[in-house]
Amino acid sequence: MQSSARERSVAFAAPAPPESSETEASTRQRVLQLVASTGPVAAGDLAAELHLTTTGVRRHLGVLEASGQIAVHVAPGVGPARRGRPARRYVVTARGQAALSSSYSELASQALRYLAEVAGPTAVEAFAAARVSAAEARYAVELAAVGNDVAARAQVLARSLAADGFAASTRPVPGMAAIQLCQGHCPVQQIAAEFPQLCEAEAQAFSRLLGVHVQRLSTLASGGHVCTTNIPTTRTTVTGSTGTTAPGRTT
């Protein structure tokens, strides 16, 4: 009898209150940000990172996919085929990137067009270099604390970029003495699509900060789902665009 009473009390217990619309929106934004920083990523991985149920995360992913802010990433087949349906892995779309930031400005594009018209393309390059110089100086101080190890410096750089809103992370490159710096968000993506000098200046700053030649493999501005920079972890002598020697380089 006691067992039956206990079962009835559980059966008729009040259901957990649903999330408020504000909480739903906040959670969905966190899901979108995590897809930007770690994609291509599956619902289960997102659920583990956010400490949510996979079912709940799938619901948010469904809303984001329906609104065009994320899409299923279709990658070429790697390795032997597996039984069962593979997990859907998601990346952020251009619409999702726009939703992550309100920093895009047609006014900035107009200003750069005018600068290019009256002063030439070298003026745009000079502006791009000046734009990254303040951040580069700040990052250099943070990287100095970890010495000359390229991989360690890249990880600190990724954390610094993430703190500045670039959804950055590092990933190892299997079988190679290299790592990749991935940036899932760019606040000037639309402007950089028209003025790639912004991307080039950033890559040059990365080379100077890390002391190695880095190579951009993809950018959000050119249509990639993430900005990917390949970083060799074996140090070589590198001269930056300013003619200075990067920290820890040998000359």
UniProtKB/TrEMBL annotation:
Pfam entry (one): HTH_20
Q: Which Gene3D superfamilies match?
A: Winged helix-like DNA-binding domain superfamily/Winged helix DNA-binding domain
SUPFAM superfamilies assigned? Winged helix' DNA-binding domain (SSF46785)
In this chain, the stretch annotated as Disordered covers 1-26
Q: Which domain of life is it from?
A: Bacteria
What name does the UniProt record give this protein? HTH domain-containing protein
Q: Which organism is it from?
A: Cellulomonas fimi
